[in-house]
Specification:
This protein is about 30% helix and about 25% strand. By secondary structure, it is α+β, with helices and mostly antiparallel strands.
Length: about 290
């Protein structure tokens, strides 16, 4: 048996081809496959890396947006968004009511408030820090907003800023207790959508403003839907009066409407509220109709 195994092993060994003769012809093909595999592996990992970077970038944007929305809530202790105010060389003396928008500027403004360049008292500062409207679940910080100067029909006009996540108080408009018109504006879409439900506020609903360490309670007295695009100059002037200074204290809330569709941002929802009084609050729920013009 031992001799037979040795013979067979020798025969088997004799049948094996020489290494060079068996693999020599395919060695270049194997190298090509190996190089192609390495190239595919490299590109695959590169695409994975790019995908991870993009995912982190988009995730970072959404995380920042969520943080800003949370920080803009009135019930948080996080710092409020930075005010958006005019430059110092664009300031001095009384508030000029801006037009709420115009057909010529709506495309550029994207629903922002457009009007004459205002001037304000350099010593005036917006004092409101928070607004709460329980009926539509709004509880937001308030920041001061100013304007940018733009060219329109050969004239300089003011393009009012809108706070991205918070509610904006128009610079130069009254503070609570001043006895004038307190103008607050906010986005209906995009960003924080803080006034996305302003359309659904009804007469009799309550609004609380926080200013200088005090709370001021107001009751909604009127809600209006005004058209801004394709109307006469007289209509624009009438709309502008809604946010003009007044001799009695009131709150005027403004946002664009509708938030989408072919007529997007062609109208404005304007809600007015007066200082709270029990007698007025008892009568208000019956006055639920819209004023449309």
């Amino acid at each position: 048996m031992r001799r037979f195994w040795i013979v067979n092993r020798s025969a088997s060994a004799a049948k094996l081809p020489a290494p060079g003769r068996r693999f020599g012809a395919g060695s270049s093909h194997g190298s090509a496959l190996s190089g192609r595999a390495r190239l595919l592996w490299t590109f695959g990992n590169l695409f994975m890396l790019v995908g991870v970077v993009l995912l982190l970038y988009v995730g970072g944007i959404y995380s920042q947006a969520e943080y800003e929305r949370y920080a803009a809530r009135g019930d948080t202790d996080l710092p409020a968004p930075a005010p958006i105010v005019p430059q110092v060389d664009q300031e001095p003396a009384p508030f000029t009511a801006p037009v709420l928008g115009s057909a010529a500027a709506d495309g550029e403004a994207g629903g922002q408030v457009v009007g004459p360049i205002p001037s304000v008292n350099p010593d005036h500062r917006s004092a409101i820090t928070r607004v709460a409207i329980p009926s539509i679940h709004v509880d937001s910080k308030v920041v001061e907003v100013g304007w940018e100067v733009k060219q329109q029909d050969g004239q300089e006009v003011a393009l009012w800023q809108v706070a991205e996540y918070a509610v904006g108080q128009h610079r130069g408009s009254a503070n609570p207790g001043d006895g004038g018109n307190i103008v607050l504006a906010g986005h209906v879409g995009g960003y924080g959508k803080v006034f996305k439900d302003l359309y659904y506020v009804k007469p009799g609903d309550q609004i609380t403003l926080y200013s200088a360490g005090q709370q001021y309670l107001y009751t909604v007295s009127e809600r209006m839907l005004v058209t801004e695009e394709g109307v006469s100059p007289e209509q624009h002037a009438a709309n502008a009066q809604l946010i003009a200074p007044t001799e009695r204290e009131m709150v005027t809330l403004v946002t664009c409407w509708p938030p989408k569709g072919p007529d997007k941002f062609t109208q404005r929802v304007v809600v007015r509220a007066l200082p709270f009084s029990p007698a007025f609050a008892a009568q208000s729920p019956a006055q639920s109709s819209w004023t449309i013009r």
